[in-house]
Amino acid sequence: MHMQLFLALVVIALAQGVYAAQDVPASPLPELRLVETKIGPKGNKVLVFKHKAVKGMDSPGYVAQDFEHGVSFMLPAGWDEIKRTPRPMALSLHGFGDSLTDYADSMSRWFADSDSFIMAPNDPLGTWFYGYSDQLPDGDPNKGMVVNYTERRVLAYVEYFASKYPVDCTRISVAGGSMGGTGTTSLALRYPEIFSGGDAKKGATNRAYCHWKAQCEKIWGRYETGVLNNEGVNVWDWQNIAWYLQHHHNKANWLRTYNGKEDVSIPFRQLAGPPEVTPMSFYAALEAFNIGHVALWDGSSHSKPDPKNPALDDWWEPFSDNTCFLRTNLSFPAFSKFSKNDNPGTGAGDAVGTDNDLGNNTYDGDPQGGFNRFLRWNSTTIRDTAAEWSIELRLSSGAAGYKGAGTETVNVTPRRLQKFAVKPGTTYIWKTSTGQSGTQKADADGLLTIPGVQVAKDWARLIVTAVP
Fold this sequence. Notes:
The chain is of the alpha+beta class. 19% of the residues lie in helices and 26% in strands.
């Protein structure tokens, strides 16, 4: 499994031009130095490592300075070095300005009851877990090239710890808030071969319409300059997730996002709009390109909860749930056009005042709600064979679940297919256990979307087969 992960990382790097041949270091990382061990309240251990900047994973200037980076890795309580039972690994991405050691303290408490390995890469340069100009630290970021140095280090850390510990490499997830939520979105969507999915809270999706624009211009160059990244793309386009999905939606991952309309740090307008944004808003892109997603919003600010405390969903953990879960070797349904979706508005408006001022934002649309709330699937009964793809679907019926009339409709796009092959322009037969049936042609990208599938509180199976 570790070799499979390593090969996936190499394939990604070569396919996306991540490494120029002369820049590939001799090993994924220099030897990590253990600088501290923190013991959590349940006996869980957080190992804190540091290493110096290396060529290919940092700018020449930072390499010359021997700049230090760090990463923390948590061993769960009860970890047995003898038995070495395989476990999932979750990446936990910190917010802007959090230090390596302070975040290690926090994760020792937050994840004290977790049975998973937890990895927390540090981003001391505030790159939103992406990268920065190869002219830094002393040069002009409006010249040269922006390189995904931070992503390279994160992927190298993943490979390193998966080689040292029995990580279940089909169950590596990523989550974070604020800057960490931003990194969660981009890492999950760019590297679906590595990450089973992402859970992003209060993250940004388009820094051109964010209060952090000026900070980003210090590492990526001015928006008007349009500096290219190592993919040969304007870095501001690359960091606009809607643009990224428009050009890279064929192998998309599953993502859950949660944001607040009172957030003055990560404004809601850069998710729902604004009206003039191109090519479209982040929310519109999730729907238009059939990305697996749950997108939630309420009246919270960046740090203060919505005083109305709305129950947006039966919050479940798709990385550990026993029925509805995600794996990199398991297909899942991407939902769109759900009949119970709420209206996020156009992104016209703003959050007023400071992060402590709640209840006075000027955004249009529903004050709280989401896309694809209440929808669940049964991962344990998926059929993904050469002859058939089928899945059981239903509406969540828990305390904070679906409260509608009884039956809703949703479009379903099979994603991360393992054996069932969808060919562009080919027509497929579909039917459901509730009596629906029809035919549907795959689009030019090889994505097949079954429209108007009925879902209710009981499991119903959707079955897709090729035309004989």
